[in-house]
Amino acid sequence: MKKILIADDSPTMRSLIVSTLDALDDFELVEAANGFEALRILPRGKVDLVLTDINMPDINGLELVSFVRNNPLYKDTPLVIISTEGSRRDREKGLALGADAYLVKPFNPEDLQQLVARLLS
Amino acid sequence: MVNQAIDDFLAESEELLEKLNQDLAELGEDSATGRDNPDLLNGIFRDAHSIKGLAGMFGFDDVAELAHHLENLLDNLRMGKVSLSETLLDCLFDTLEGISALIRGKAEDSEFTQDITAYLTRIEHLLSGPDEDPADPFAELNLDSALLDVLTEYEEHRLQETLKQGKSLYLIKVAFLLMSFDTELAALTDKIKESGEVISTLPGVENDNPEMLAFRVLCGTDVGVEELQQQLDFAGLEIEIVADPTSAETSAPAATELPGAATVLRSTDKIPASSSRSTPAESPAEAEVAAVKNKDSGSARSFTSTVRVDISKLDYLMTIVGELALAKGSIAQLCVEMQADGLPVARDLEKAIHALERRLNELQSGVMDVRMVPVRQLFDKMNRIIRRMAQELGKKVKLNIQGGDTELDKLIVEELADPLMHIIRNSLDHGIEPAERRLALGKPESGTISLVAAQKGNHVVIEVHDDGRGIDPEILRVKGIETGLLSADADPTRQELYNLLFQPGFSTCEEVSEYSGRGVGMDVVKSNISALSGMIDLTSEVDKGTVMSLTLPITLAIIKALVVRVKGKDYAIPLNAVLETLMLEPGMIQTIEGREVMELRHQTLALLRIDELFKLAGGTVDDSEFVVVVGFADKRMGIIVDELRGQQDVVIKSLGKALSFVKGIAGAADLGNQKTILVLDVSGLIGETLQREGVFGV
After folding, report:
1. Which of A12, B99, B511, B686 is most open to solvent, judged by the fewest CB atoms within 10 Å of its CB?
2. Are B5 and A64 inside 8 Å of each other by CB?
3. Are B179 and B284 in contact (CB under 8 A)?
4. CB contact A91 to B (< 8 Å)
5. What's the CATH code of the domain at B381?
6. Among chain A residues, CA nearest to B214
7. What pLDDT sits at residue B546?
8. DSSP helix/strand/coil, B203
9. Smallest CA–CA separation between A101 and chain B, in Å?
10. Which of B376-390, B407-421, B517-531 has the lowest mean pLDDT?
11. Among 1.10.1380.10, 3.40.50.2300, 3.30.110.10, 2.60.40.150, what is the CATH number of A3-104?
12. Ranges of each domain in chain A
C-alpha cells in the first residue's frame, strides 16, 4: 500500500485532505501536525508522497522540502506543496527547492486526486 | 460527512479566533510597554492565514475574503510596512469580531452572510502606504544559498530586521538523536529565544549517522559568540558567525568552541551511535527518558497532540464514571452483608473493592481534568468587551487580570460568560466615574477593573473589583422602601440592603438615583449563577469601589453527597456544602419571631425543615434527630433531618424545564438501586431561608 504523508498544522485541513484521498484509493495516510512530526515519520518506513503546507510553526514547509530533497534517503520522494495563495516568492522558492507541484488552497478535490494519482503512478 | 466537516471547521475556527483574541490583547500590551515580539505577531498572522484557508475550503467566501484582508494587514505589520498603532489594533479587534459574527451566523445557517465592505474599506485605508520590493539584500551576506532558499518571505524580513538592528547573526549547527530531537531542539530554540530570535531551522543533510538528525539554526541576537556558546550548552554544538557588526571579521566564518568544554563536538565529526557523548542521552532508550524529563521541566514544547472533543461526549463519560461509582457502591454493600454473614471471602473482596475505588477515583478525576479550562479564556473575552465599552462610554479604564490559570469546568466557563459580562458592564457604566470626576476626587484618571480568580477548596471564586464610586446603602434603603421591598420601619443591615440589588422588583425602576442602573438585570445574573449552583455576593464602599464575588463549584457533573432521610424519603445534600452534622438534643431548637433557630458556637443558625418545605405529610417534630449545617460563601444554615444515611457519589441530572420552577431542588440523582432521589439546591435554600429570616418578610 502506498504511504502518503500529510503535513499541515490545521487538523481540519488534514482531515479534508484525508477524506479527499480516501475517496481515491487505498492509501496509508499519515498525518503530521508540524514539521517536527514530519521529520519523525519520514525515517519510519518508506513514504511514497509528501503533501505539505508552507506556514507551519517551528519547521516550515520550505525547510521540509529542502530536507527531503537533499537527503539521499528521501530525495526522490514526490512532493506537493498545498498552501494558501500567499506570497508569490514562497511559491517560487518551493518549486525551486524541488517540489513537484504547488496546489493553492482552497483546492479543488479533483485536482488533488488527479495530481496524487499522477505522482504515484 | 459534510456536516461533520463543517462542525470541525466551526470548532477549529472558534479555537483560532479565541487564540487570536488573546494574542492580539498580548500584542497590544507588548506595544504599550514598547516590547517587540515578532514570534507573537507571526503566530497571529499564521492563525489568520489558517482561518482564510479553512473558510475557502468550505466555500465561505465572505469569511475567506475578510480573513484575507486581515491576513494582508497582519502581513504588512509583520513585514514592518505599517506600524502598530491604537487605530490599527482596534481595526484588528473589530475585523476579528466581524469574522466571529460571520462564523457564528454560519453555525446556525450555513447560508448566513453579512455586508463586510465597511471592514474591507477600513483595512484598505490603513494599508494605503507605499509597497516596496527591495532588491536582494542578502547578497553581501556570508550565508549558504541553501539556507536563503528555504526562508519564507517573512523569515527574509526578520533576517533583514536583525541586520538593520545591528544584531549579530549566527548559524548554529547541532545534531540530535532521532529519538529525542524534537524536545532537544525545542529546548535549544527556547534557550536562544532568551537572548535572541530564531529566524530559520533547517533540518540538515550533512550527517552520516542514521540515528542522528542534524540541524542548522539561523538566529539573530545581541550577545557575543562566546556568551552564546556558554548559554547553549548542548553537546556537539557549533556556532558559525554569519554577521557580527561588533567585529571586523564579519566575512570570515569562524567556528568557535567553548574553551575547556570537553564535551563539545562538531556535528560534522563522526559520532558513534551511542558513545563518546557525555550528555545524559547515552543510548536511545535513555535519550527517550531524558526527553521525557525535559518535557517535565517545561523547557520543551511537545507535539501538538490535541484531540478536540464535543463536551457532550465528556458528559457521557462522566455519567458512565458516575454509574460505575454507583455499581461499586452496590458491591460494597454486598460485601458488608457478606461480612455480617461471616463469609471468609469478604475480607478479600473488601480489599478488591478498595483497589477498585482508588482506580475509580483516578478515572473520575482524570475525566474531570479533561473538562477543565483556565478562566483566562473567559477573562480575555471580557478584555475585548471592556475595550469596546470604555470607548463607547468615553471612559478610561484599565483591566487587571489575576489568577487566569485557575481552572473551571468548561460548561461553567461557558455559562459564566453572560453574567460576568453583565457585571462588568454595570461596573463600567455605573461604577467607574468619568475622568473629570475621578480627578476631582483625587483618584487616578483611568479607572481599574480587576478580574480575580482563585480556587478555594471545591470552589472557584471569581471577583470583579472596580475602583469606582461604590454603592451607597442609604440610597438603596430609600429605594427599597419606595418599591415596597422594604417596610418603612425596617432596620436592615448593609448586606441586606445590597441584596436588594438582586431583587427582580428592584431592577425595573430606573431614574431617581444614579445607582439604579446597577440593579438592571442583576436578578437575572443572580439566577444564572444559582443555576450553576453558585452564589453571588457584593461588598462596596462609597467612593472606593465595589467587589462582586461569584462562588462557583469547580464542576457540576458528579458530586459527593450526603444522603439524608426525612419522613421516609431520601434526599442528597452536596457534600461540598456540608460543614458539619450535629445530633439534636432536647432544647437546642429555639423559636425567634416564629422561625426555628439554634445557637451554634455563639452564633444564631437559621434552621430549615425539609418536610415543611416540601409539605411532607406525617410525623412530628420529635422524629428529627440531626442537623446538617450547610454553608456557601459566608452564609450558614442548618437543615433538620431524621436520619443520616451516609456518603455517596451521585450524578446530578437536571429535572428539565418542566420542573424548573420547583425551588430548593438542584436536580435528581440515581442511587444505583433503581432509586432516584432529589438533590437539594443548597445555595438556593440558603438564599431563601436567610431572606425569610431577614428584612423582606415574605
Report:
1. B511
2. no
3. yes
4. no
5. 3.30.565.10
6. A67
7. 93
8. strand
9. 16
10. B517-531
11. 3.40.50.2300
12. 3-104
DSSP annotation of B509? -
Cβ neighbours of residue B164 under 8 Å, at least 6 residues apart? none
Q: What angle do helix axes B376-393 and B86-108 make, rounded to 10 degrees?
A: 120
Q: What are the residues of chain B with a beta carbon less than 8 Å away from any beta carbon of chain A?
A: 1, 5, 8-9, 12, 43, 46, 49-50, 52-54, 56-57, 59, 64, 146, 149-153, 155-156, 178, 181-182, 185-186, 189, 200-205, 210, 213, 303-306, 308
Distance CA B159, CA B78 (A): 12
Q: Using CA atoms, how far apart are residues A16 and A82, in angstroms rounded to an integer?
A: 12
Same domain, yes or no: B398 and B524? yes
Q: Measure B8 CA to nearest chain A CA, in Å.
A: 6
Cβ separation A16–B46 shorter than 8 A:
no
DSSP B316-366: HHHHHHHHHHHHHHHHHHHHHHHHHTT-THHHHHHHHHHHHHHHHHHHHHH
- Alpha carbons within 13 angstroms on the beta-carbon side of residue B72 total 20
Number of neighbouring beta carbons within 10 Å of residue B570 = 17
Tell me whether residues B185 and A36 touch, CB distance under 8 A. yes
The CA distance from A119 to the nearest CA of chain B, in Å, is 23
| Contact between A12 and B5 using a beta-carbon 8 Å cutoff | yes
Residues B562 and B545 in one domain: no
A36-79 pLDDT, tens digit per residue, is: 889 888 888 889 999 999 988 888 899 999 999 888 888 899 99
Give the three cell numbers for residue B119.
471592514
Tens digits of residue pLDDT in B398-445: 888 888 888 888 888 888 888 898 888 888 888 888 888 899 999 998
Do the Cβ atoms of B157 and B265 come closer than 8 Å? no
Contact state of B203 with A93 under an 8 Å Cβ cutoff: no
Q: Chain centroid to CA A23: how far?
A: 18
DSSP 3-state of B48: helix
pLDDT band at B385 (very low <50, low <70, confident <90, very high): confident
The answer to whether B152 contacts A54, with C-beta atoms less than 8 Å apart, is yes
- Residues of chain A contacting B308 with CB distance shorter than 8 Å: 11
